[in-house]
Amino acid sequence: AQSVTQLGSHVSVSEGALVLLRCNYSSSVPPYLFWYVQYPNQGLQLLLKYTSAATLVKGINGFEAEFKKSETSFHLTKPSAHMSDAAEYFCAVRYSSASKIIFGSGTRLSIRP
Amino acid sequence: SQTIHQWPATLVQPVGSPLSLECTVEGTSNPNLYWYRQAAGRGLQLLFYSVGIGQISSEVPQNLSASRPQDRQFILSSKKLLLSDSGFYLCAWSPRGTGATYGYTFGSGTRLTVV
Fold first, then answer.
1. Are B26 and B5 within 8 A, CB to CB?
2. Residue B111: which of B91, B94, B95, B87 has the closest Cα?
3. Hey, which of A68, B24, B84, B94 has its CA 20 to 30 A from B53?
4. Are the beta carbons of A73 and A23 closer than 8 angstroms?
């Protein structure tokens, strides 16, 4: 079955440190991939998406993600964490226009001062 | 530009009372519409989706129902709320027939507490 896995339900980093949130998909066919961010008591906001145009995708707020077909991964990174990055992050996949988006279980990012 | 509205933002309802949450989309036609729920400490659970007026697909059998009386209006309802219906409810939309590269756009959510 097609699925998406986010490793680590909770990640904590110090302010200024590298942020790495992991996402792996299970499919022999590369999907379209998304990262969403959710701040407390708010809806999900699209951070970035991979649509096969380029393997390194840059998004809002300094985040970027790299699609690696050989590893079936789409990890989210940010070189230097900011306190305002504290939120829940969801990785998601979609395989066709007729299919629904499949969301991962989410990773809560905490930033230590 | 397209916008999605969800209301109310917060709601406290007693057990056994009815529920009606409304979601509307502006600036687009024929959208696909979705209702999700987030229970405390859990991920997103797709409840219903709709590809057109009167067309509702249920993902999880439960105490809730959905309706789409107009093209850009999606309503989540319950006749009698249970404590387990508490959670954060999110409406979302996506353009129909435009390819898989489009993600979903989410509303701001409704925090429902059943007491």
1. yes
2. B87
3. B84
4. yes
- The encoded tokens of residue B43 equal 């991920």
Residues of A at the B interface (Cβ-Cβ below 8 Å)? Answer: 31-32, 34, 36, 41-46, 49, 51, 90, 92, 94-97, 99-101, 103-106
Q: What is the largest CA-CA distance in chain A?
A: 44
Element (H, E) at A46: strand A44-50
CA distance A11 to chain B (A): 15
Tens digit of pLDDT at every position of chain B (115 positions):
889 999 999 999 999 999 999 999 999 999 999 999 998 777 899 999 999 999 999 988 678 999 999 999 999 999 999 999 999 999 999 988 766 678 899 999 999 999 9
Gap between the Cα atoms of A37 and A14, Å rounded: 19
